[in-house]
Structures are given as structure tokens and as C-alpha cells.
Amino acid sequence: MEFPNVYGNLRDYLSVSSLSLKSLLLNRRIDKVPNRTKHYRQTNSNGYWKEVPSEIMEIIVQRLSVSDRIRMSTVSKYWGAIASQKHIPTTPQFPWLTLPHDDHRNNKELSFYDMSAGKVQKLKLPKRLQGTVCCGSSKGWLIMADDASYRNFLFPSSKNESDIFLFNPISREVHQLPPLTTIPGYQQFLKEKIHNISCFVKKIELSSANVSECVVAGVFKSCCFPMAEVAICRPGNKQWSIFTGKTEDDNFAFSNFLICKSTLYLLAMVEHVENYNLDLGAGFEMNIKIIPGSYIEEGDQDEVMADDFVLLSEGAFRLYLVESTSNEILLIKRVYDLFIERINEDDDHIEDDHILDYNKTSSFYVFKMDPSTSEWHRLDNIDDQVFFISFGGSASVSAKDFEGVRGNCIYFAEDYDYCGDNPCPISRDCGVFYLEDGRIERPFPSVSLPLRSRMCWFTPIL
User: Can the peptide bond before residue 4 be classed as cis, meaning omega within 30 degrees of 0?
Assistant: First the structure.
């Protein structure tokens, strides 16, 4: 699949003819320049400006996406200074796909696939974050973690504390979150010797892109802990606050969560909606709403041979909560087939914990909750919406905001937890699902497993 260039040219943004644009930028005389552009009144021998006045530049910039403003900032210092001004609004931004990166100590940059430009964007990490791994994204921020479990595997004398940060790769702002040692299950995770911090940090969500006023929620889980831990904090706090709400269901377990309109929605296997409030101090309180998931039979696990792998389970699934473009909470069910490596039964040298497993997405279903009954009802289509699904970070946009983009589809990324250091196959489980006919395209490059960094959808902000 060849992704279209979803952005028009400068003339399309300004909705003016080439003649009027030329007149506006070149033929306007210096005596008509407002006082606030005094610094840029230098002219050439013909009396024309050497720099476009700032008020005209602002008109241009507000017609650009963040991706366009990044490219614009490379033209000159003057253009870069205006392109980076946060008070100037931007047009809707198509999400980027974060690509896997090495988490050794020499890791100095992040790579993203920018579908609007059809190329990979590389952004440098500040020195403080070099060697960290990406565990997800939320509201234009990346969650970066210093992986003590893997560092101790490489260098046994290293410290056991894993620092975790919010990072904006566009503005290069960094905010440290409370240490993971304040999460009860973290010490157990270190004992398990998984050597992959993204297997413990399942997901982190921000209530707002404005860090000064946001609340941060996270789900953490070690392999041996029966339940995931939900922890909440504010940037600058010394420790995480653990949510210990009691539910009516003894089999309670979180499967996904989302923050929408200052409320934390936790998806769990409960029968009815349950409401809680968690006091974070300093006048901050988090409203928590536990909403029911769906008990769905996984079917028989008949072994079917497929090349070098056995189809162990057909119709396994993972659930996601997504905020629609109209601010509704939707449930996305991702169905996949689980394969394991076909092994020669006579080979005594292969241990059970070294069997390779692999997942392949086969379909998606979208549901909307009836608030009066707490029941989920399936939607046949999502109209012009485009959903971007990954466990580490999801997003939604309207296809109407982007030229040449098709709606009623779901972009998905590889996000199965291939924890541990066992070898895994190459994955091509990143692609596009079309709700209209159930078709799947996989235009993205293959990735080597296991992933130490989490692939996720990231929407850049200034």
C-alpha cells in the first residue's frame, strides 16, 4: 500500500492564488510594515523584504500541522522561532508510529514512521534519556523508562531503581515521574529476571497534555502477581498512589483503561459500572469508573499445523478502550490467532520455556456502551473516523481533516507481550483493518521480536 501525502501545498493552506500569494510576500513595501515587525524591516536593493513579516508568518504557520512545522523549522532560525511558538494553533496531526529501538547505553535517538510524509523521522534523545526505552505514549508525550532489570542483566553491579519520565520529543521537555520502586509489584518483577521493563509498565495515560495540570495513571504488572496494579500520581510527586478499590466480582482484573474528561475508565470483568474517587492531595482528585468488559469464550484450542508453527488458538482477543473524535468511549476487540513453534518430539534439547510463540491479527470489532444497561452494542461502522490501536497508546482522527485519507478503518501496531529473552520470530502484525469488508493490509515493515521498546501511536504536539 502506498500512503498518500495527506497534506496539500502552501497555496492550498492559504486558499489564495499564486499571484496574490506572491504579491503578499514579495511586493508589499516596507512602509506598510506594522511596528511589531520592526526587527525584520531590512530590505534588499529592490526595496523588498529579506524576511517575511511575523504576522504573515503566523497566518502561514497556523495552517500547518506539527509535522510541517518541524520541517519549516529547519529553513532558518527565524522560521524555526515562529514555527515553535505554542500559542499559534496547528491543523489536525496524523499520528506517527514509534519504531522499535535498541535500549543499550548508546541509544541516542528515537525513530518514528510519519505516514503523512511517507518516511522515517529520527529525533535525538536528550542526554538524560539516552539508553531508556519507550513504554508508550499519551496526549503527545512519550513514556520513557530506565530499564534497571536489563541493565543489571548486562552489568550486575548496577542500581535496581528504574526511573520513568514523560518526554516530548518535539519541544524536548522532560518531566520525571515517581520511581517504580514505590509500586508494590516492582521488586517481584526484578526477581523474575524478565529483563524487559515494558513487560512491567503495561500502560500509562495522562489526563491532559498540559503537564502542569495533568494527572498520570498507570497499570503495572509482574508475571507472578495475579492482578495488575493501578497507580496514580502527578508529575513532581515522590511516590505513586495505589488504587485499591474493591469490586463486587471476585474475578476482578483490569484489561485496559483510558482517561477521558478527567475520569479514569478501567475496563474489567465486572457486571456493572462502579464509581470511586481517589484523593491525590493538593486539591487534586481522580474520578474512577470501572466499566464492564465482556466474557467471551475463546473456543476449542485445536492444534492445526501451519508451516513451522502450530495454530494453538483461533479467536483469542485483546480489548482496548478508545476515545472517539466525538469524545465517546468505545471498546475495540482485536481478534488474533496464536501460533507456537512446531517441535520435533524426539529433540530432547528443547525446553518448554524456549518454545516460540507468535500472534497474527485476524479481525476487529467495535462496541459502544449503553449507559442505562452497561451493555456493549456492536457498531457496524465508524463512519469517517480512523482509529489507531496499540496497548501503549491509541488515537482517533477524522478522515475529513486529511486529504486522501480513508475513514472507517483501524490502524494497528504490534503490541503482544513477548517478555523474556527467548528468541522470537519476525513479526508483520502492523497494518490496517477496513471495517467495510474486513480486509487487512500490512504495509508496514517487519520487526524483530521480542520488542524491548513498545510500539505505539504517537501524536506530536509542540
Answer: no
